[in-house]
Design goal:
With 511 residues, this protein is α/β, with parallel strands linked by helices. The chain has a domain at 381-510: GMP Synthetase, Chain A, domain 3. It has helices at residues 2-25, 27-42, 46-50, 59-65, 75-82, 115-136, 168-174, 188-191, 196-208, 220-234, 260-266, 311-315, 381-395, 430-444, 446-452, 470-477, 495-510; strands at residues 94-100, 109-114, 146-149, 154-155, 165-166, 184-185, 213-217, 248-251, 273-280, 283-287, 296-298, 304-310, 322-323, 333-339, 346-357, 360-367, 398-407, 416-425, 462-466. It is globular, with a radius of gyration of 23 Å. The N and C termini lie far apart (61 Å).
Length: 511
Amino acid sequence: MINFINNLFKVHLKKYEAELALHYELPEQLQVDTLANLLVTMEGTAFGQDHHLAGVRHGAGFAERVPVRNYDELQPYLRRMLRGEDNVLSPDRVRWLAQTAGTTSGQSKYVPVTRDNIQECHVKGSWMTLAMLHMQREDLKIFARKNLLIGGGVYDPHPDNGFPVADISAILVHSIPLVVRPFYIPDVKTATLPNYERKVRIIAEMAAREDSITMLGGVPTWNLALYRHILEITGASNLLEVWPNLQAYIHGGVSFGPYRETFRRLIPKPDFLYQEVYNASEGYFALQDGEERDDMLLLLTNGIYYEFIPFEQFRSGDRTAIPLSEVEEDVPYALVITTNAGLYRYLVGDLITFTTRSPYRIKIVGRTQEFINAFGEDLLSENVENALVKACRETGAVVKDYTIAPYYLSERERGRHQWFIEFLELPVEQSVFTRSLDLALQRENSNYAQKRSNDFAISELEVIALPPGFFQQWLRRKGKVGGQSKVPKLANHRHFADEILAEINTMIGES
C-alpha cells in the first residue's frame, strides 16, 4: 500500500517534470508569458492604475512606466496594504506577512504573501524541487516513509492589522497539502515554533525515536544543531545509524560550501542526494538541476518576472535593468523581480551571476550591500565562500558563521581584513588556517592578490576566533532571533566589527 501511494505521487510529479523541461526548450517565451499574465492580473490594482498599466503586456512598456524600487521606496503602497486596504498591490488578499529580517542591519521587513503567491510560487517551487529529485533518482521513497523538516517560526500577528507573521519556511510548512502531511515530521505547531532552541530540543527527542526518515530539509546551520542533539540522545556516531533509509537533503538559506564536509561525515553515504534551492521571502527562484552541479536552474513559471542590473552600473546609481534574454555569463547582477504577490520591479538585494544561458542557471554571489572595497580589492561573498571552503578542507576546520570587515590603514600599520569566525571545529593551528585562507582568497580574487603582493597595500588577513554560541547571543541581543536572521558576511565599514570587539572585551572583563 505504501509503495502504491509513493507511485501515485510520482505520477503527480510528472506534470512538474514536463514544466521543468520547458525551461531547457523555451525559456525566454516562458518569461514573456509570465509578464503578460502578471500585467493582466495587476492592471486593475491601485498600483496598476497609478502607473497606467492597462493594456501594457511587454517588458519595454512596463519598464517605461514603473521604476525599479527597493523596500523603502515601495513603502507608500505597503503601508496602505498593512492598514488592510484591498487591491493595492494585488487583487488577491494578503494571507501572511513574510518576515524578512535579513542581516542585523535595519528593522524587520514584511513582504506580502497572497494565496496565489503561496500556491503558484512557493508550493509549486517545492513540487518542482521534488520532481527534480525524482528525475535524478527514481528510487526515492519520499512518500513511502517520513521526511524531517525544521522550518522557521510563526510570530505574533502584525500590531497594525492582525495579519499573521512568519518566516517564509514556516508559511510553507503551514501550506503543505493535507494529503502529504502524514509523510512529514514534526507536526505543524512544533515545526513553526518561534523559539529555535526549544524547537530543536523538542524535534530532537521526537526524531530520535523515528527510524523511517528518508529526506531532510532546512537551513544547514540550524539542522546541524538539531543533528548534534539527536546524536547525543541516541549515542550514534552518524545519522545513518539513526535513520538507515536516508536518501536526500534539501537545503538553502546560506551557502552550503562551508558545511559540506561536515554533512558528509554525518551522512557517510556515497549516493546521498544534496538538493540546493533558492527560496526567499519574495519568491521561489531557483533549484539545483543536477547532482554534480554547483549552480541552480532559474525557475521561469512560478509567477515571477526577472530583470537584472549589472552590479557595477548599480553601484554607480544607474538602475537600468535588462531582461533575461540580454544577460551575459559571469557578470554580477542585482536581481529585480515582479511577482504575483504584488512586488513590481523590486530589488531583492541579492547578487547573482549566470553560469549558463541554455538553460539559464545562476549562482548567488552576494548581497548588493555586502562587499568590501576598502583598498580596491572589490571582494564579494562568492570569493570569500570559495576561499573559506578551501582553507577548511586543507586544515580540517569547520566554520559555523563569520563576518568580515576592513581594518583601515594607519600611520603605524597597513590595512587588512579582519575575519571574526565562530568555529564548529577549530583548526589544529590557527596560524596555518589564516595563511591558507589568505592564499586561497588571493587565488579567488586577483584584485586582492595585487593589493597583497609583497604586503604592498594590505597585510595578511587576521582571524579572530569567537567562542561557541557568540553570534547567536549577539543576534539575540539585537532582537534578531529566528530563521530569517543572519549574520552579515561582508561589510565595507566597521560598525559590526567594532560592536563585536567591544563585546569580546566585555566578556574578557567579566571573566
